[in-house]
Every structure is written in C-alpha cells, then in structure tokens.
Write a structure and sequence with these properties.
This protein is mainly alpha-helical. The chain is built from six helices and no strands. Helix 2 packs antiparallel against helix 6 and helix 5 crosses helix 6. The chain is elongated.
C-alpha cells in the first residue's frame, strides 16, 4: 500500500504541480478540469485497483503450523463455523468476472461529462492517441487534448 500511496503522491506532486504552475491547468477552467479527469482517472483507478488486489491477497500472518492454511488466521478461516453462521460464499464463473471487468472498462470515462468525453474521443482518434496506461501517457494526452481544444475555441 505504501508504494501505491507514494506513486500517487508523486503523480500529484510532479505532474499536476507542473501542469498548474506551467499554466496548462487552471482550476477554474471547466475544460481543464474535464480534460484532467478524462486523461488521469483511468491511471489513478488502475493504481488503486492494483493496491486493492495487493491488499486483498496479502498474507494475514505467516504460519509455521502446517495444518493451518498458509497466510490465513484459523479464527478468520473458521469464524463462520465457530459462530454457527451460514456461509454465503457464491461460486461464480470466470466469464462472469471477465464480463464485469469489461463493463467496468466501459464505464471508465464516467468521471467527466458525456459531452466532453465524446469530444475528447474524437480528438484522440484524430491524433492517434490511446487511453493512458501510465502518468506520462496521461500527461501527454492531456497536453494534446488541451492544445487541440483551445485551438478550436
């Protein structure tokens, strides 16, 4: 988790600071805000999803007990049985997970307005830009979109 926090902090400290103080991002400019959300939210979400996966798969404790499942606390593992409660685990298929991931990917642009998203996608297609996978790509997309949109205005 610490590394995720550090990466996000560096993103804010370096890229956002540089954009703001370089005059390429103005807080009160709605086009700048929408563009920032359009370009950076996917990168931020992916980093948070990565942190979530790491957190959810981390060992709770190391175990020297060969009878205990690795990384699981006996109390947590058997808590439902100890409390005589029902287990509500539902088995789901890999296809269900893939479909959910696809739907999530389609909703990635919900952070900015639909009108801005349509405009930005047109410009991205014209310029041959793709969705950012890292802060550097997001910054390049942001600068390119802002330049093109400001040229249109």
């Amino acid at each position: 988790m610490g590394s995720t926090q550090e990466r996000l902090r560096r993103l804010v400290d370096s890229v956002f600071h540089e954009l703001r103080y370089g005059g390429q991002y103005i807080d009160s400019n709605i086009v700048h805000r929408e563009c920032l959300k359009f370009c950076f939210m996917l990168v931020i979400r992916k980093e948070l999803d990565r942190a979530t996966r790491l957190w959810n798969t981390r060992p709770i404790r190391s175990s020297n007990n060969q009878e205990a499942p690795p990384g699981m606390s006996d109390i947590l593992h058997f808590l439902l049985e100890l409390l005589q409660r029902s287990n509500y685990v539902v088995n789901i298929s890999v296809n269900y997970i893939k479909n959910a991931a696809d739907k999530s990917e389609c909703q990635q642009r919900a952070d900015c307005s639909p009108d801005f998203s349509r405009l930005a996608n047109i410009i991205m297609n014209e310029k041959g830009l793709v969705s950012a996978q890292c802060p550097q790509m997001a910054e390049y997309a942001y600068r390119s979109l802002i330049d093109k949109i400001e040229a249109l205005l």
